[in-house]
Each structure stands twice: as structure tokens, then as C-alpha cells.
Amino acid sequence: MSTRLVVVHPDAAVLAEAAAARLLTRLLDVQSVRSPAHVVLTGGTVGIRTLAAAAASPLRSAVDWSGVHLWWGDERFLPAGDPDRNETQAREALLDDLVAAGALPEENIHRMPARGDAPSEAATPEEAAAAYADELAEHSEDGTTPHFDVLLLGMGPDGHVASLFPEHHALEAPGYTVGVHGSPKPPPERVSLTFAAIGQADEVWVVAAGSEKAEQAAAALADGPVTQVPAVRAVGRHRTLWLVDAAAASARG
Ligand SMILES: O=C(O)[C@H](O)[C@@H](O)[C@H](O)[C@H](O)COP(=O)(O)O
């Protein structure tokens, strides 16, 4: 049975700080009982602000990053180093500092392949998705995905999470990863975890800020149809947190 908690924060800045503090203390809790911990990162402004807040937090140094593996819920299918890649923005916000400090091993960062010809890259979103599915399985105990302790998701104004958009065939994709074309949010080509992968996580945290998210946040929390509001299926095995600001919570009854 998964529990759900909605926490409303005064504004987006406080939301990012609170989400960062939660993430760091969650990692401390997990590391007190097991290692490694696996965290799935998200793109988007709130997701990246959360990483930047973690980078600035004194709690950051309390985490044993050598025992933390970082994954992505989705990625924009662009060349390596492109400033619009979620990986690029996460590295700039937090990861590069941790690696440079010798705290986080580079091999603990599990990027989704970029568009390119190199062996570590991919020619199509489908090829990238297949390679990522293999990497997830390699770090799993049962050939599926690692034991995700926390899976972060931003939510778009249309209710999408990761790169799973309303009325899109990727919503029902089999397996744990999917190549996405025709994304209504640029860029059009992406790679995403599927809901099967998202549902593997002990805890799923949806982070959303801004009045433009209010209608779909309310629809998701009212258990609307997944084809119209994909965020409704952002559910963790043990707990689902909705971490929102007052503007994103403004349409709730
Ligand atoms: O690649 C992406 O764009 C993200 O993964 C996407 O799912 C994002 O999290 C939402 O669109 C929310 O983005 P904002 O927080 O910027 O509104």
C-alpha cells in the first residue's frame, strides 16, 4: 500500500530548498541501513533548482556519495554536452562539483545516451532507450531496474512527467525505457523511463511550482485519467510525495 502526502510550500525557492533537504536526509536514512542508494533525477526548472540547492547545503557533505548512484527519468535526445540536456544541467548544478571533489565517482553517474556516433552514444531515441534498459538491468537484482530509493519527477503544465505526455503512445510502452518522438515540449526527441520503471521506486516525489501547473496537479490528485494527466501514475511502491508551491496547489478543492 502506497501512501501519498501533499506538502505545499510558500514559493518555488522554498520548494527547491525543502526538496533538497529532504533528498539529502533521505540519502542519510537509506545509507544507515544499506548501500548503494539509487536516485533518479529529473530535468526541468524545479528539478535542477533542487540539485543546485543540494549543492549549496551543508547536509551535502554528510552523504557518502561513493555509495550513491544517479539515474535519469528522462533525457532530451541531443548531442553530448548540449546545454539543454538534463545531464548537462544536473552536472552544472551539482554533479561536477561532487566529482571534482572526489566525492562522487564518475561511474556512479548513469547518463542516458546522447545523440551521436561514439560507442557510448546512440543514433536514435530507441537505440538510446534500449542501451539504458540494459544498464538498468545490469544494476538490478532481477534483471529489471535498480532498487530506486527516490525517483524525482517534475510535472509539466499538461500533466506530463518524465517524457510521458498526454495522449502519447509512450504512456503504454512496454518495458522500462522508451524512445519518444513528437514531444510537445521541445526538443521533440527524448528518452524516458516508462511507468513500469517509475513504479519500481520506493518513493516517487513529484515537484511542481507555478500556477500553470495548478489545474493538472489538482486533476492528478483527484485521480484523473492517465491519458489526460499522466502524473496520476507517478506512484511509488511505498510513498508518493507531491512537493508543490502555493501557486501549483491553488486549484485544489
Ligand atoms: O526533460 C524535461 O523537460 C523534464 O524531465 C520534464 O519532465 C520536466 O520535469 C517537466 O516538464 C517540468 O519542467 P518545469 O519544472 O521546468 O516546469
TrEMBL record:
Keywords: Hydrolase. Its EC number is 3.1.1.31. Pfam families: Glucosamine_iso (PF01182). It is an enzyme of class 3 (hydrolase). Pathway: Carbohydrate degradation; pentose phosphate pathway; D-ribulose 5-phosphate from D-glucose 6-phosphate (oxidative stage): step 2/3. It catalyses: 6-phospho-D-glucono-1,5-lactone + H2O = 6-phospho-D-gluconate + H(+). GO terms for molecular function: 6-phosphogluconolactonase activity. InterPro entries: 6-phosphogluconolactonase_DevB (IPR005900), 6PGL (IPR039104), Glc/Gal-6P_isomerase (IPR006148), NagB/RpiA_transferase-like (IPR037171). Residues 10-242 form the Glucosamine/galactosamine-6-phosphate isomerase domain. It comes from the Bacteria. Belongs to the glucosamine/galactosamine-6-phosphate isomerase family. 6-phosphogluconolactonase subfamily. Hydrolysis of 6-phosphogluconolactone to 6-phosphogluconate. PANTHER family: 6-PHOSPHOGLUCONOLACTONASE. NCBIfam families: pgl. This is 6-phosphogluconolactonase. It comes from Isoptericola haloaureus. The gene is pgl.
